[in-house]
Amino acid sequence: MTDAVISAQHLDLTFQTGDGPVHALRDVNLTIDKGDFVSFIGPSGCGKTTFLRCIAGLETPTGGDLTVNGMTPDEARKARAYGYVFQAAGLYPWRTIGGNIRLPLEIMGFSKADQAERVKRVLELVDLAGFEKKYPWQLSGGMQQRASIARALAFDADILLMDEPFGALDEIVRDHLNEELLKLWARTEKTIGFVTHSIPEAVYLSTKIVVMSPRPGRITDVIDSPLPRERPLDIRDTPEFIAIAHRVREGLRAGHQED
């Protein structure tokens, strides 16, 4: 047995629309192992988010096989196998930061004492200790996104799925959150699937980079990163980093040429 947490074999997804079928994914084959940090990168509309939503059981493939923790994605969703972080923080403005993090725990029926302990723990994990009673509008965009990550971590799922969580943030804040996310990953040992449009972000964060083609989404390259797990930001200036970024760019270019 391998440590495979997510396995896709010959995965297809076609949407039926009024203008005819839209082929979103075609013959996607991928294995994600326990503890991997996997980034999905490709042009807009290439199926990155669609594939993430298939893993989460939010879209249903029309062909092939997909398992999450040995279960169907729908079974994994019901078993709360993953936390999901969207591009927008999606915090309810009428609830405090603590209240937003507690919401899924309330729905799942955790005791009040357990909720309080988990909220305290995840706020410390994302460096927001002391902000439990603040409201979203009192926090910066970067802090709101960290609160969103805390909410996804609160019920302690093994898998964290992140759909361009830093895409709307400025570069300085994004760099800081990239550093913090790597520290969080090291502390929690989660398996992370991360959608991004940024080549430097994908190379900096990942143990594995999945390069996808324009629609219909196909995998053009899977790059196992040789970079060490501890990565200061200035690693981006090293020849090793630049070589991986070049390979990602070549994979994106090849995908366009095949289209």
UniProtKB/TrEMBL annotation:
Its EC number is 3.6.3.36. GO terms for molecular function: ATP binding; ATP hydrolysis activity. SUPFAM superfamilies: P-loop containing nucleoside triphosphate hydrolases. It is an enzyme of class 3 (hydrolase). SMART domains: AAA. Residues 8-235 form the ABC transporter domain. Keywords: ATP-binding, Hydrolase, Nucleotide-binding, Transport. The keyword ATP-binding applies. It comes from the Bacteria. Gene3D superfamilies: P-loop containing nucleotide triphosphate hydrolases. The keyword ATP-binding applies. InterPro entries: AAA+_ATPase (IPR003593), ABC_transporter-like_ATP-bd (IPR003439), ABC_transporter-like_CS (IPR017871), ABC_transporter_ATP-bind (IPR050166), P-loop_NTPase (IPR027417). Belongs to the ABC transporter superfamily. PANTHER family: ALIPHATIC SULFONATES IMPORT ATP-BINDING PROTEIN SSUB, TAURINE IMPORT ATP-BINDING PROTEIN-RELATED. This is Taurine import ATP-binding protein TauB. It comes from Flavimaricola marinus.
